[in-house]
Specification:
Layout: H1 2-18, H2 22-33, H3 38-43, H4 53-90, H5 109-123, E1 127-128, E2 134-136, H6 137-140, E3 165-167, H7 172-182, E4 188-197, E5 209-220, H8 224-239, E6 245-252, E7 255-264, E8 281-290, H9 292-297, E9 305-312, H10 314-322, H11 335-338
Parallel strand pairs: 1-4
Antiparallel strand pairs: 2-3, 4-5, 5-9, 6-7, 7-8, 8-9
Helix pairs in contact: 1-4, 2-4, 5-10
Domain Aminoacyl-transfer RNA synthetases class-II family profile: 113-320
Enzyme class: ligase
Keywords: Aminoacyl-tRNA synthetase, ATP-binding, Cytoplasm, Ligase, Magnesium, Metal-binding, Nucleotide-binding, Protein biosynthesis
Length: 344
């Protein structure tokens, strides 16, 4: 048995030395060291040996197995190094060739508008708040002074999922949720950017999905003059220091009194042109003082606290700032359109 083991060693080392590729080397590993390999087959006869011979043969078999394993590993490393050298020769890179320029992306135009508005309001002490896009009927309507059956619900034709769940039609539910979290203690000072959904026919000025940014400030002694000052700062920040604003009476169920804000037309300076339909003003956003019912449902004492809220569409702001005539450009992902606003 000792002679057989020595013969296996010499044969294995010779074949390993002569092997030319990794597959053949792996075959040799299985042939000599595998579960059915030659060394294993020899060791099956250990039972016929005397008690004195068994440890001697066992030690010899281990030494031969180690020697073959070391030879296999050394040969494997040699073959891998040779393969790498050959690959480098065949795949030489000409570093003098011109490279392929990488196209650098940028923020979407709407994201740029949203960030600009966030920067303004965070500098004024507001926090950015978010909420779910799949909303409950309570927070989307009832908590905002729109009980079931209220006719104003028809103004926001909705995507209902169940009787009590829908895709939010505005970001106002974020305001209601945030006020609830404050448990009747002010101040609450937030803006709420996000996507909203309404059943609408897509055309140049309408979309079933669009973005909104709403703002809310609730504290003691908040007045209409605070709202006007905030909106005036917003208009000048977005459209230039020479822009004027005006507030027109309007109606929203969650604010009382309610107003629409217009900005003076920058195309004609207020003289009247086709852009402003000869009025000198362009409608911008809706706002108002928070309705006492909304405050009470959120746990605030409407005798002590008051507040204002406003809501605007980043799409409309972007269209006014950049002269974009079709809202669908924002969603069709035409690179030719997006490249024009790469800066943002």
């Amino acid at each position: 048995m000792k002679e057989r083991l020595q013969s296996i060693k010499e044969e294995a080392l010779q074949q390993i030395d002569e092997v030319k590729d990794s597959k053949a080397l792996q075959d040799l590993r299985v042939k000599y060291l595998g579960k059915k390999g030659q060394i294993t087959e020899v060791l099956k006869g250990m039972g016929k040996l005397s008690k004195e011979e068994r440890p001697v043969i066992g030690q010899l078999a281990n030494d031969i197995r180690d020697a073959i394993t070391e030879a296999l590993d050394t040969k494997q490393a040699t073959l891998e190094e040779a393969a790498l050298e050959q690959q480098l020769k065949e795949e030489t890179i000409d570093v003098t060739l011109p490279g392929k320029p990488a196209q650098v992306g940028g923020s979407h135009l709407l994201m740029g508008v949203i960030r600009d508005i966030e920067d303004l309001f965070t500098s004024m002490g507001y926090e950015v708040a978010e909420g779910p896009e799949v909303e409950t009927d309570y927070y989307n309507f009832e908590a905002l002074n729109l009980p079931k059956g209220h006719p104003a619900r028809d103004m926001q034709d909705s995507f209902y999922i169940t009787e009590e769940l829908l895709m939010r039609t505005h970001t106002s539910p974020v305001q209601a949720r945030t006020m609830n979290q404050h448990e009747g203690r002010g101040p609450v000072k937030i803006i709420c950017p996000g996507k909203v959904y309404r059943r609408d026919t897509d055309d140049a000025t309408h979309s079933h999905q669009f973005t909104q940014i709403e703002g809310l400030y609730v504290d003691e002694n908040i007045r209409m003059s605070d709202l006007k000052g905030t909106l005036n700062a917003l208009a000048k920040y977005l459209f230039g220091e020479d822009r004027d604003i005006r507030l027109r009476p309007s109606y929203f169920p969650f604010t009382e009194p309610s107003v629409e804000m217009d900005i003076s037309c920058k195309m004609c300076g207020g003289e009247g042109c086709s852009v402003c339909k000869q009025t000198g003003w362009i409608e911008m956003l809706g706002a108002g003082l928070v309705h006492p019912n909304v405050l009470e449902m959120a746990g605030f004492d409407s005798e002590r606290y008051s507040g204002f809220a406003f809501g605007m569409g980043p799409e409309r702001i972007a269209m006014l700032k950049h002269g974009i005539e079709d809202i669908r450009h924002f969603y069709t992902n035409d690179v030719r359109f997006l490249k024009q606003f790469h800066r943002v």
